[in-house]
Amino acid sequence: MRALFAFLAGGLFGAGLLVSGMTDTTKVQGWLDIFGAWDPTLAFVLGGAILPMLVAWRVATSRTAAVLGTPIPPKPEPLLDRRLIGGSVLFGLGWALAGLCPGPAMASLSYGGMQGLIFFCAMVAGMLIWHLAQRQLLAKAT
Amino acid sequence: MIEMSWIYGLLGGLMIGGAAALFLLVNGRIMGASGILGGVVDGTGFSTLAERLAFLAGLVGVPALISMTAGAPATHLTDNLILVILAGLAVGAGTRMANGCTSGHGVCGISRFSLRGIVATLIYLAAGMATMAIARHLLGLI
């Protein structure tokens, strides 16, 4: 059951990314290009995505657990550390250079050609590099 | 003047938000693309591996089916492979460092008024816009 609904959620997410135009890197780069031909589409996508989630969080907080029994994830502590800030700067930089973030990079794997596949592999490598670097840092700290 | 791409953006956005709502209310999970993939890549999410893989299968598979039947949209990803690789590395490492990307911090975080989600989104937007201004208008790279 968990896997079935995870598949459905992933599928709807991917279809939404395709329909919204967010797998088209020119739309994303156009949104970030405030000194050029600015494209506001991404604001409609983000706004449209937040609407159902406003309702979902209202429903979720009135319950103790999700339908399949997992507790509703607690709200994170409002902690603004160097990791959150530095990571977001790094992500924003890469996002602008290619016009892809993780969701659209995966949704477009089947039609994004060789460059799309290379981007995905580099993204996975980046995730591994951070994971190993973080373990190294932790080992040094102790 | 309302452009068609804004309507598709809003429609796709509602689908993305619907997917996040489904994943939250049924599975009790935050729909964050970088977190779901990252947990598979570095092994930190192996206890929920089946759920993660099912989500990713939907995210890659459903757009593949749509693009095969209705035609594949263009991604317009750059041919400059050095840029593609650098961007992928930055997106992968940055999203794991910050613990989230556009879907986790953006869609799921903002809609529950999480300080971390809101701040992360403002930072990666600002970093993306600054990168675009420098890389496109100053250096002419993209």
Q: Can you characterise this structure?
A:
The complex is a heterodimer of chains A (142) and B (142). Chain A has 142 residues and is mostly helical. Chain A has one domain. Chain A is 70% helix and 0% strand. Chain A contains six helices and no strands. In chain A, helix 2 (25-32) crosses helix 4. Chain A is globular and about 45 Å long. Chain A starts with a helix and ends with a helix. Chain B has 142 residues and is an all-alpha fold. Chain B has a domain at 78-142. Chain B has helices spanning 4-27, 33-41, 49-70, 81-97, 102-111, 115-138. Chain B is globular. Classes of the chains: A mainly alpha (142), B mainly alpha (142). At the A-B interface, helix 1, helix 2, helix 3, helix 4 and helix 5 of A face helix 1, helix 2, helix 3, helix 4 and helix 5 of B.
Write the layout of secondary structure elements.
The complex is a heterodimer of chains A (142) and B (142).
Chain A: H1 2-20, H2 25-32, H3 41-61, H4 82-98, H5 102-107, H6 113-141
Helix pairs in contact in A: 2-4
Chain B: H1 4-27, H2 33-41, H3 49-70, H4 81-97, H5 102-111, H6 115-138
